[in-house]
Design goal:
215 residues; alpha/beta; six-stranded parallel β-sheet; globular
Length: 215
């Protein structure tokens, strides 16, 4: 908006080789317990974690043993009042994990949820989940909508809406065909952001600039 001209926007990339079906789930991730994964700094208001937390009782009406795994730095005591007030069960605050173990947490979940409400410039965690062959529920905010497409490779929901989050997660847990469709499309989306592809886009921009081509 300040400087006229042609702009090439090259996105961030992810190392998709770190993720995928070859990553084994943890031994405790036994079948029969639907697991929802959150990854991020859950104390930050912009991450919208409290809305996912408040969605859990609604999810557990349909899936009583559903579990929420929370990976990332933060103080879980800040949410103790919410947990007590809404009688929220089966929430495990894992804390920070190593880069080596993070892919195993993705592999150990059934649904990945990113309920951020604003100021997400890019959906790295969405792509990590997609590369891990997991279905994604995320807020419909610009940063996430630039990466994921509703009903194509993810389910995007209204921000700050626990009911919408719960409905989308329950829908995925109950519909194996929908999960499979989103997982396959999500894997293709993640591959589009692999570092080799992103690096080639950077090289293409330099090549066009060197040749004096702006379109």
């Amino acid at each position: 908006q300040y400087f006229a001209g042609h702009y090439d926007v090259v996105p961030n990339g992810i190392d998709i080789d770190r993720f995928g079906e070859r990553m084994e789930p943890f031994s405790w991730a036994t079948p029969g317990t639907p697991r929802i994964l959150f990854v991020g700094r859950y104390n930050e208001a912009r991450k919208g974690f409290k809305y996912l937390l408040r969605a859990m009782p609604l999810i557990q009406q349909q899936f009583p043993n559903a579990q929420l795994l929370v990976v990332g730095p933060g103080d879980s005591e800040r949410f103790r009042e919410t947990i007590d007030r809404y009688q929220i069960r089966n929430v495990e605050f894992v804390g920070e994990v190593s880069a080596e173990s993070l892919p195993h947490y993705y592999s150990s979940c059934d649904v990945f949820c990113a309920p951020s409400i604003y100021r997400e410039s890019f959906g790295i965690v969405l792509l990590e989940a997609m590369a891990s062959m997991k279905p994604v529920v995320a807020s419909d905010i610009p940063g996430y909508a630039s990466v994921a497409t509703h009903e194509k490779d993810a389910l995007l929901v209204q921000p700050r809406d626990p009911s919408a989050i719960a409905l989308a997660i329950v829908r995925l847990l109950a519909d194996a065909e929908l999960r499979a469709r989103l997982v396959q499309a999500g894997h293709r989306t993640a591959d589009h952001y692999s570092w080799p592809r992103v690096a080639q886009r950077v090289l293409d921009v330099y090549a066009r600039a060197g040749a004096g081509v702006t379109v």
